[in-house]
Amino acid sequence: MKSKIFYALSIGNLLAFSFYLFSFTNKTTTTLDFQDKIIKVRGVVIVDSLGIERVIMGSHLPEPNFGKNGYGSRANSRGKNGVSGVMLYDAEGQERGGYVTDDNFGNAFLTLDSKTSMQLLLLSEPQGAASVILNSADRKNVVTLSTNDEDAGIKVKKNDKNIPLYENEK
Amino acid sequence: MKMKNNTMLFAVLFLFTISGKAQDIFIPKMTNINPVSYTDVTYIGSKDTVLVGTYSGRIAKRIKGNPKEIPVAKIQDEVFSLAYHPKRKEIAAATLEHGILIINAVTGKTIKSLPLKTTWSIAVFFSEDCKYLVTQDQKGNQYIWDASKNYQVLPLPADFPKGTIIAINTQNIATVVSPNKVTYWDRNNNTVQKEVTVDLKKFADMDTEGNFLSLNYNECTKYNSNSHTVAFKVKHPNWITHDVEDYSKVYEDNYSMNLTTAKFARNKMYTASIDRSIRVWDKATGELLKTLSDHKATVHKLRIAKGEKQMVSIDLKGGIFFWDLD
Q: What is the DSSP letter of B190?
């Protein structure tokens, strides 16, 4: 009987000591070697020293946390048109650009955003058209380069007035 | 036999340790959350003490002079807006996925969840007498709950004006703002008490004299609804930055950046911007009186304390400042 109690106490002691040791384990001390492994995941999130998410590689990417109503909300801008790829966020956590494809039209995008709007868009459409669009914040000054099988064009909007260039060139 | 049992036990514990560490790196979903950013701030006293909320679901108390947060509640959702009921000591928190949560400010426990028809709310507030809780969702559905009747939802009449309810005063008059009209709706007899034509791009604030502040990108307009005239427009004239190595060195660039909010208080008006500054303007003339450049990130909310003796400002990196108003 005594030996059974002793054994039970030993086990209990061992468990308690193991949990005690476990509490000291430091996540950073473990080095995982994945050099010859292939990782298959839905997303990877890179955070900075404050825990602010700075890069997300994923499918699908989350909605921006800045909308027409300002900071402190979700934009709901992509709606059901989910996008997947890589998104960059600034030191305040605001979406500032991405390299993505969308599920609906099948476009591929590369975008660079200011803190108020999208300033640069590189777009490749699935049927073989492409565009480069440069915007000012108020969209009154815009440069558009576009190509497709029927046409190629350069358009400039300056002070909110369209100034077509090289149209109808033979 | 004993040796074998011990070995097995060690093996189980080892696997438990490894699996625990491996699980630690996974998160339930991608959110692009900035956990340090304050999303809203609201006074819980006449001055010096406020509640702040975060995208990561943290609700905390901040007291002037105390650099640390005092935790109040932690919810598994994003918090966009806060309101405080001083008599019931309850917090109303507008969240992404759970509508409006009513939280006991003393225990931090969620008492009740008030569902929204669609989407979420980014602004929730109590009426002037704290009898009603008011909000609207992102699709424009308006909600009024009776706080004294366990937050019973109060149906709104079909002809209730469209727009954003921004206040309900002690006479039970609701102020509803839309870009071209401000309606004062008498909730006692469900009639329009007064309608005022306005021209507001994005409503920011109103005072008791019929003046409105409206934001349009980097421009703040003071609009007088009595005379239907624009009194003046102001812009932050520059972008002030500090040297990375030597913070006392200040640079000024001639950029006028996007404004995030604006408020009236006494004889002044205050504008905040992504340029990390707050500018103080003379309410009568629009003259720039002062630049407050203590924030180190986008200043996105300003709140004026009751009595207009103090203002609190928050930024997207968890910065908070209390400003005593002259």
A: T
What sign does the CA torsion over B297, B302, B308, B310 have?
Answer: negative
Which residue type occupies A34? F
Q: Delimit the CATH 2.130.10.10 region(s) of chain B.
A: 1-197, 202-326
Q: Which of residues 137-196 of B touch A (CB under 8 A)?
A: 138
Report yes or no: B205 and B215 within 8 Å, Cβ to Cβ: no
Query: What are the pLDDT digits (tens) for A72-125?
Result: 666 666 666 789 999 999 999 999 999 999 998 899 999 999 998 899 999 999
Do A72 and B30 lie within an 8 Å CB cutoff?
Answer: no
Q: What is the ipTM of this complex?
A: 0.82
How far apart are alpha carbons B83 and B98 in whole angstroms?
16
CATH fold of B1-197 reads: Methylamine Dehydrogenase; Chain H (2.130.10)
Cα–Cα distance for residue pair B180/B189, rounded to 1 Å? 24
Which of B13, B34, B78 is the closest to A92 by Cβ?
Answer: B34
CATH 1.10.260.40 fits B202-326, yes or no: no
Contacts with B217 from chain A: Cβ below 8 Å: 116, 137-138
pLDDT in tens, B211-234: 999 999 999 999 988 888 999 999
Residue for token pair 């070697």:
A33
